[in-house]
Design a protein that fits this description.
Blueprint: E1 4-10, H1 13-31, E2 36-42, H2 53-59, E3 66-67, H3 75-92, E4 97-101, H4 105-116, E5 121-124, H5 136-146, E6 150-153, H6 156-164, E7 172-174, H7 178-186, E8 207-210, H8 214-217, H9 220-233, E9 239-242, H10 245-251, E10 261-264, H11 269-277, E11 281-284, H12 288-296, E12 300-302, H13 311-314, E13 318-320, H14 328-336, H15 353-364
Parallel strand pairs: 1-2, 1-4, 2-3, 4-5, 5-6, 6-7, 8-9, 8-11, 9-10, 11-12, 12-13
Helix pairs in contact: 1-7, 1-15, 3-4, 4-5
The protein binds uridine-diphosphate-N-acetylglucosamine.
Length: 366
């Protein structure tokens, strides 16, 4: 019986959360005599312990088989370095399938490299679109989906986007959300961060803030105005802000910020989601966090004009506030008066997505 080697690609923090349940399901399949083998390829896009290794440990992801070690750079530099290094690997030891997740630079770079060597590509979280071409992630999604063979989707909206670009239904697999598999698997393991007592945090009496999009944090004036408004409008409750490395660079040039904003290191998975689960609300420009808020029923305010995850707004607890922080006031008034909507969980976000993906893969290789 010949085995079937799947490269599982991960490069940046949100990827690690999405691959953990897939690896677990592949291993279960192996243990029951299945033919699928995997090779975990870390591109090295995120390399700080807090952005990478800590996630591997907490999520029980095995050591990568390969680390392409690309590190930081511009979008083009990172893309090029990942493609060159992954191509070398595939020339030396080809795989049968390249499985990419999400929308980061590593996702697109590895998909292009594999497809050019005629290795089929599977994309997990395919078909979502923000329509905003100023976000590198949107370009990554569009390019990746244009050369994907097998599309694993999180929503009916994503299926519809793909069908509109003439993808045959037989190549679209609506499996649910692996990021939510990780969350549900770890819900009982969440732990308070080390500063919980020091900051005197109380359940439901603080905010969580995350900002890292270039349009929000790369310009000092825009970023400062945003922080001042957030500090003013959160009625003296603590605002816990785990600072992403990109954000830290701009932050080091800004002074005179509100005292209720507490800047902390990037948190690992179990601590971060403990903070979210128990927060009064989350203010963010992330996409994945809006999904986690939806499942944990935590009010979420997104400082963006668009979302590729509309179900977090239509079904979940998320609202799009836009990038003008002045808009926050109305949203916070609604929150403090107890009028925030109660969400429900989107279809198939049930913790079984990793298994569904592997059972599709098993059928594909017969
Ligand atoms: C990437 C993803 C984004 C995702 C985010 C989550 C792309 C296009 N963007 O953005 O979708 O939401 O990850 O974290 O792939 N840096 C470090 N240490 C690290 C990693 C990065 O210091 O471990 C620095 C880099 O030097 C760079 C900056 O952080 O200056 C940004 O890193 P990069 O990987 O380019 O993109 P992110 O903004 O993290």
């Amino acid at each position: 019986m010949t085995s079937y080697l799947v490269d599982i690609i991960a490069g940046a923090r949100p990827n690690f959360v999405k691959i953990a349940p897939i690896i677990r399901a592949v291993k279960e399949q192996q243990n029951s005599g299945g033919r699928i083998r995997y090779r975990l390829v870390h591109t090295g896009q995120h390399y700080d312990a807090q952005m990478s290794v800590d996630f591997f440990i907490q999520l029980g992801i095995p050591e990568p088989d390969i680390n392409l070690g690309v590190g930081s750079g511009t979008q083009a530099e990172q893309t090029a370095a990942i493609m060159i290094n992954y191509e070398k690997l595939l020339h030396k030891t080809p795989s049968n399938l390249c499985l990419v997740v999400g929308d980061v630079t590593s996702t697109m770079a590895c998909a292009i490299t594999a497809q050019k060597l005629q290795i089929p590509v599977a994309h997990v979280e395919a078909g979502i679109r923000s329509g905003d071409w100023s976000m590198p992630e949107e370009i990554n999604r569009m390019v990746t989906d244009s050369i994907t063979n097998y599309f694993f989707t999180t929503s009916e909206t994503a299926n519809e986007h793909l069908r509109r670009t003439s993808v045959e239904s037989s190549r679209i697999f609506f499996v649910g959300n692996t990021m939510i598999d990780s969350l549900l698997n770890n819900m009982e393991r969440l732990i308070p961060p080390s500063f919980w007592n020091e900051f005197k945090l109380e359940i439901g009496e603080y905010f969580v803030l995350t900002l890292h999009r270039p349009c929000n944090v790369d310009t000092i004036d825009i970023f400062k105005k945003m922080l001042l408004t957030i500090g003013e409008q959160t009625r003296n409750l603590p605002v816990i802000f785990p600072v992403h490395p990109r954000t830290a660079k701009t932050l080091s040039c800004i002074h005179g910020l509100p005292e209720n904003i507490r800047f902390v290191e990037p948190q690992s998975y179990l601590e971060f989601n403990y903070l979210v689960k128990n927060a009064k609300a989350v203010i963010t420009d992330s996409g994945g966090i809006t999904e986690e808020c939806t499942v944990m029923n935590v009010p979420c305010m997104t400082l963006r004009n668009s979302t590729e995850r509309p179900e977090t707004v239509t079904i979940g607890t998320n609202e799009l506030i836009g990038t003008d922080p002045a808009n926050l006031q109305l949203a916070l008034d609604k929150l403090f008066s107890g009028g925030w909507k109660v969400g429900s969980t989107p279809e198939k976000w049930d913790g079984k997505t990793g298994k569904r993906i592997v059972s599709v893969l098993e059928k594909l290789i017969i």
